[in-house]
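Hi L.,

You mentioned the student needs an example of a multi-chain input paired with its predicted structure. This one should do, with 114 residues in total across all chains.
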Amino acid sequence: MHEAGIAESVIVAVERRVKSGEIQGRLRRVFLRVGTLQAVLRDNLEFLFGVLSRGTLLEGVELVVEPVEARGLCGGCGREFVIHELWFLCPACGSTDVALVSGDELLVAEVEIE
Ligand SMILES: [Zn+2]
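Structure written out for the whole complex:
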């Protein structure tokens, strides 16, 4: 499952930073920015994180998923717009020359320590 793999990667990445001493203190929450193009089920991801983190250094830590809306930038007319589907055209000029500005991210934005 997509969400289980993501939860696992977050646990491994944060555990590594705790072990290396980069993160010190008792973790409370981990904030994860997830682009809407990742098509992640937010509740599912938060739930699986709770299950998979049992027995790890992240046991009891809350995962907070922060959705990042997908945005495109048109190379034709320079307009920036919100992307609602995986197949996108510029709504202003119809160009397919669109660069993704945001929406495919998957990164730990912040950790909160007690
Ligand atoms: Zn355009």
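You could point out the following to them. The longest strand covers residues 27-35. The mean pLDDT is 91.

Best wishes,
N.
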